[in-house]
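Consider the tokenized backbone below.
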């Protein structure tokens, strides 16, 4: 099952929902960044949240950034998504190893620690919208739920999961976001709460062969689920050598001269996809001439 996000509504628009399967993009992130299992879980969960939240935006150029900064050993995560299913991201310290938590699960909360979640939406306005909330548990799904409740006043149920194979490759990844829209009736709210109690793990559902459509049908079928959109999703980075050149030119003549004086080919790393771009001394001299 290739990665994708579905957008749906239910209960005549009183409920809005997203669901995603994100195994391939999480596995690509793991491979690119060579993440440890707990970092793969943390990054995979935030990528899954990001790709669904990105699909909430309307404009083709809109960008969503999710940033977590914590005092735990991973230190933080950054994920950027557009509205067309493209997402990328990285862990500040991707090699962290931790013992499992008291439930025997990968200790994402312990790896992130105490900190802050920032949601930055660049939707073409002069200033991007920024919402910040404290981390409730560091397990990410609860933190996103808390963000929606406090910053957007939208009651939400968020599930995010990454399931690993024994060899630490990604077996399943995915999630859902179910939200109550303004004016949702008490009856709908009560029945939805009951229904959500039955859901144990989104990755278990995916591993049993359920598609994101089936996961939502399972929860929202009785509310008259309507699937509105199906968006292919992928880990994609827009970096190119040209863009890195521009960045190097912008650091200025002084720094470029120092690099040239070192007399060695330099490597510039893209944080988001971990790709390295090499620049020879001759290329640096060329950039020096273009710099101010
Ligand atoms: Zn890149």
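A designed sequence for it:
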């Amino acid at each position: 099952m290739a990665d994708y996000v579905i957008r749906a509504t239910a209960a005549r628009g009183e409920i809005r929902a997203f669901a995603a399967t994100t195994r391939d993009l999480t596995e690509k992130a793991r491979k690119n960044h060579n993440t440890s299992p707990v970092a793969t879980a943390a990054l995979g969960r935030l990528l899954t949240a990001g790709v669904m939240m990105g699909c909430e935006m309307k404009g083709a150029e809109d960008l969503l950034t999710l940033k977590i900064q914590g005092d735990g050993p991973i230190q933080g995560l950054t994920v950027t998504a557009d509205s067309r299913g493209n997402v990328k991201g990285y862990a500040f310290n991707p090699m962290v190893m931790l013992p499992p938590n008291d439930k025997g699960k990968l200790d994402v909360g312990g790896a992130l620690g105490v900190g802050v979640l920032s949601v930055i939406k660049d939707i073409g306005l002069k200033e991007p919208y920024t919402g910040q909330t404290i981390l409730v548990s560091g397990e990410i799904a609860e933190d996103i739920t808390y963000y929606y409740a406090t910053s957007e006043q939208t009651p939400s149920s968020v599930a995010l999961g990454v399931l690993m194979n024994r060899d630490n490759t990604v077996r399943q990844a995915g999630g859902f976001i179910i939200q109550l829209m303004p004016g949702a009736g008490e009856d709908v709210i009560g029945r939805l709460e009951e229904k959500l109690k039955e859901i144990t793990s989104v990755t278990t559902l995916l591993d049993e062969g359920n598609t994101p459509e089936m996961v939502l049908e399972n929860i929202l079928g009785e509310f008259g689920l309507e699937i509105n959109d199906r968006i292919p999703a992928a880990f994609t980075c827009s970096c190119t050598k040209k863009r890195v050149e521009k960045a190097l030119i912008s650091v200025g003549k002084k720094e470029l001269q120092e690099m040239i004086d070192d007399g060695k080919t330099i490597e510039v790393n893209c944080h988001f996809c971990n790709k390295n771009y090499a620049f020879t001394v001759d290329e640096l001299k060329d950039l020096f001439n273009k710099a101010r």
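The radius of gyration is 21 Å.
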